[in-house]
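Consider a protein example.
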Amino acid sequence: MAKTKTQNSAELFPILQQAPVGMARLAAEAEHADDGHLIEFKAMHSRSILNRSNSKRQLWMGYSINPYRGCEFGCKYCYARYTHEFLQPSPVSQVAPGTYDAPQQPWALAFEREIYLKENAAWLLEQELRHIDPREAIALGTATDPYQPIERRMGITRSLLEVFAKNQGYELGIITKSTLIERDVDLLQEIAQHNRLVVHVTITTTDAALARMLEPRAPRPDLRFEAVRKLREAGVMTGILCSPLLPGITDHELSVDAVAKRAAEVGASFLGAGPLFLKSCSRPTYLNFVRENFPHLSADYDRRFATMDFAAAPYRRQLAQMVKRVCERHGLGKRTIESLPEQDADTSQAASRKAPAPVYTVDLQQQLFA
């Protein structure tokens, strides 16, 4: 007897739609919470706030926290647009390397237009911190900026910092482009007294006009430098990430040197920088931006990212040497906790740690936020 092909219910009854599952279900159930300019905010029920992060490429393990899903800043090079793929009711098609004329995917645009607010974030963090090794690094703001404008009204990030302020012995890193972090100086100081805290402020260029093109809704570079100054004056270990370095746009020594010079002037604890990488989710957005604003660079980008998302090894080594040279020129060498000035070590080394803490270099912090 011949076997008949088994059909699923969707094939037999196409009028019946399959209900979304996982993150797509949570997104579908999210309720309208607020509105902004061309943005809708939705409250999303969250089952967890700490995400285990393992990277075979960077050889580290740790945890990440993102109080929001989606980001208002709309940076053209943002690699995190892929996070909105998981909110789609059905799998999305990927843009293969070597494809340069693909339009921006609707879900990639929704990343900056449809922002989800994670409910009960502080309560979840309190529960989950009890079950992790406090010596493992926790990164706040790996995929979306924890201080994007909606934070001013919602205060989710501040509620998380209040939890850390009541604990001790943790390794916490924060990354942001926002000056709103100045609001939480009191909590950052309190956290640093009993934990190891490192704040990273991303500043890709000192050119305000270029920054406005690359990061349309982020604060101006000069305002970010001032935020670094204020955090350093408050005794918070704070450095600058001049990342990503954009080929033909910001990857030259003159540009990096200008950032490093200002970093030294405001007392930054360190400066780090790494090359651009283009995941399939960000490739159409960024490459279309290059075509519109830097058409003479299009052929170079086509060559660089024809077969891979990441920069070639010789180019990475060249940039690393340049960044090292610039940092040495301005006294911004990469530091570990032991080589920090005494006032930083006093405020960031946990006094009551039960076991020896691993020494995290700034390189590892950069990898955690890559």
Remarks:
- The first strand starts at residue 31 and ends at 36.
- Residues 1-6, 335-370 have pLDDT under 50 and may be disordered.
- The CA atoms of residues 180 and 316 lie 32 Å apart.
- The two ends are 57 Å apart (CA to CA).
